[in-house]
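Why does this matter for the project? Reviewers at the last site visit asked to see concrete outputs rather than summary tables. In response, this paragraph embeds two records directly. Each consists of the residue sequence and, immediately after it, the corresponding structure tokens. Nothing has been edited or filtered.
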Amino acid sequence: MNCLKNITHTTIPNDVVMDYLKIYKSIGMNTHNYEILSPDYQAMNSQITSLDTYYFAKIFDLDVTETRLKSLIYKEVLPKN
């Protein structure tokens, strides 16, 4: 118990506590969000992957033409004819 004398008290601002409570509340809703969003998971996953790939190429200045980049991103997409 002697080590507790060495610990200094730190005051946490109210806005930080409120932000933590909001995060805690949103973490508690994970199962609810999963149930609602699970039917659209594949569509969201492919859309996020394509956007990440596109912006990865843009950020790192890859020497790839726009049409080639889009063909790489959407190579598994088939036309709806």
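We now turn to the second protein, recorded in exactly the same manner.
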Amino acid sequence: SRQRLIGLAGQKKATNPFLKIIES
């Protein structure tokens, strides 16, 4: 589920700036 992935990215966004690119 992409929604779940976005949720995980939101939590790890502070730790992993790379996820911010994926979230975009």
